[in-house]
Amino acid sequence: MLTSKLYVVNSIDLISSVQRLPKVLAFPPIEAKFATTICASSKEGNEIIANNLNGEEGDWGYSHDLYKSMNSALAPGPGLDGMNRIMIQNITHSLDKLKSQEGQAVVMKLGKWSRHEITMATTNSVYGKCNPFNDPKVENAF
Question: How far apart are CA 13 and CA 139, in angstroms?
Answer without folding.
Answer: 39
